[in-house]
Amino acid sequence: GELLRLRRGGAAAGEAAAAAGFPGAMLSEVLLVSAPGKVILHGEHAVVHGKVALAVSLNLRTFLRLQPHSNGKVDLNLPNIGIKRAWDVARLQSLDTSFLEQGDVTTPTSEQVEKLKEVAGLPDDCAVTERLAVLAFLYLYLSICRKQRALPSLDIVVWSELPPGAGLGSSAAYSVCLAAALLTVCEEIPNPLKDGDCVNRWTKEDLELINKWAFQGERMIHGNPSGVDNAVSTWGGALRYHQGKISSLKRSPALQILLTNTKVPRNTRALVAGVRNRLLKFPEIVAPLLTSIDAISLECERVLGEMGEAPAPEQYLVLEELIDMNQHHLNALGVGHASLDQLCQVTRARGLHSKLTGAGGGGCGITLLKPGLEQPEVEATKQALTSCGFDCLETSIGAPGVSIHSATSLDSRVQQALDGL
Question: Is residue 229 annotated as part of the catalytic site, yes or no?
Answer without folding.
Answer: yes
